[in-house]
DNA sequence: CATGTGATGACACCAAGTGCAATCGCGTAC
DNA sequence: GTACGCGATTGCACTTGGTGTCATCACATG
């Protein structure tokens, strides 16, 4: 059945995580990752576009699930509720993995390069969310803004979750965040009126 | 007065912008930038940490001015108003430069590497804004969220500005954005209630 | 004129990333 | 069983980004 060793991609991911945790992202070389996975540098780059990408292969699935949830939501639900619902559900599934997810997050936050990559994935998610909302009939501009706010809420909630320990629910943290935004943004006066 | 040619840094920036516009970011090498500025590759890296940074030297000033504006605001003003005021004022000063700013933005958006850098600068701005708000007595978490929303509003407004042409005011675009957020986020129901 | 200083440059080096061609391990058709 | 096909893996050479070290230059100042 299997030629060579199977699951080359997973082996590379696991090797990378282990090494990054052991010695820090900057101190690890792609050659070392490949070595530990029993492969070569060249093969690494057949699976991942660059050194950072080995930690972000899950992002595509993550985004797809969120967008699917948005598109599947009943038409009556408000745009904010749709976005929060999608992010909350998929986020809950993610945080259910527990410690490994927290570890990965710590690694990502330890290197600027990785934070950059994380941010652009989140930005791609914002765009995809905005498109999905637009498909539901929400005005482009409003859709973009709602998507941005939704992802901001998700990010701060996820960060709080990652900083804490033990099993903890994401939804209440997100609810708290959106309550705070509603309270802060509600009574604001327009810039023009100063 | 001057040793060598003066203004090496500005020469490098100008050379970079010219080449990026001519041939695209990816097709330009650091050596070429340095050449056109009458310097060497090594000297380039004395001024800028990497190839992307040549387009982001203004970010530090930008951030400082915004934070100063926040810290200078009267204590009575609400957190959202403070943030929007600071971003609006400094953003207006920026957009007043007109076409060169639009050009730079087009370059940044043309290369993923540059978008990543832009995003992390914006994220640093969010953190700085949150710190400044916290210093004004706003709760940490609320401060972070307000900062995120503020920067989201600024970004979408700036993007609209950059896509249009001719002199145009940023403030009304930002006002419109925040009105949309208020309308969308106001009547939302908590996740727990589903 | 000697000397210090900061900007510039030469050089060597490492790591990331890429294009291309070879090879390997297997299944399948004949 | 042999030839062939195919996809995964690899070797190799090359470009580019980025860095450490040390020399050198052009000026200012005593």
Label this structure with key terms:
mainly alpha, homodimer, 71% helix, DNA-binding, 194 residues
Description:
- The structure is a homodimer of 194-residue chains.
- Chain A is mainly alpha-helical.
- In chain A, 71% of the residues lie in helices and 0% in strands.
- Chain A has 9 helices and no strands.
- In chain A, helix 5 runs parallel beside helix 8, helix 6 (99-110) crosses helix 7 and helix 7 crosses helix 8 (140-163).
- Chain A is elongated and about 55 Å long.
- The structure holds a DNA duplex (30 and 30 nucleotides).
- Listing every helix as H and every strand as E from the N terminus to the C terminus, the arrangement of chain A reads HHHHHHHHH
Largest interface: A-B, 48 and 48 residues
Overall mean confidence score, pLDDT of chain A: 94
Q: How many beta-strand elements of chain A?
A: 0
Query: Which runs of chain A of at least 5 residues are low in confidence (pLDDT < 50)?
Result: none
Strand content of chain A: under 5%
Q: How far from one another are the termini of chain A?
A: 73 Å
What is the topological layout?
Two copies of one chain form a homodimer.
Chain A: H1 8-23, H2 30-36, H3 41-47, H4 58-72, H5 79-95, H6 99-110, H7 112-135, H8 140-163, H9 170-185
Helix pairs in contact in A: 1-2, 4-5, 4-7, 5-8, 6-7, 7-8, 8-9
The structure holds a DNA duplex (30 and 30 nucleotides).
């Amino acid at each position: 059945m299997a030629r060579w060793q199977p699951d080359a991609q997973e082996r590379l991911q696991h090797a990378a995580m282990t090494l990054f945790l052991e010695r820090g992202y900057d101190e690890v070389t792609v050659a070392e990752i490949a070595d530990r996975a029993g492969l070569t540098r060249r093969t690494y780059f057949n699976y991942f576009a660059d050194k950072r990408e080995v930690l972000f292969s899950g992002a595509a699935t993550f985004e797809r699930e969120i967008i699917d949830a948005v598109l599947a939501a009943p038409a009556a639900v408000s745009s904010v509720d749709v976005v929060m619902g999608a992010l909350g559900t998929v986020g809950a599934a993610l945080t259910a993995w527990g410690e490994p997810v927290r570890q990965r997050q710590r690694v990502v936050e330890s290197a600027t390069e990785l934070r950059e990559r994380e941010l652009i994935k989140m930005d791609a998610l914002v765009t995809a969310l905005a498109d999905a909302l637009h498909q539901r009939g929400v005005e482009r501009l409003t859709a973009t803004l709602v998507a941005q706010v939704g992802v901001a809420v998700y990010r701060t909630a996820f960060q709080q979750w990652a900083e804490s320990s033990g099993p903890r629910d994401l939804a209440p943290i997100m609810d708290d965040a959106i309550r705070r935004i509603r309270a802060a943004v509600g009574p604001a006066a327009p810039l023009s009126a100063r």
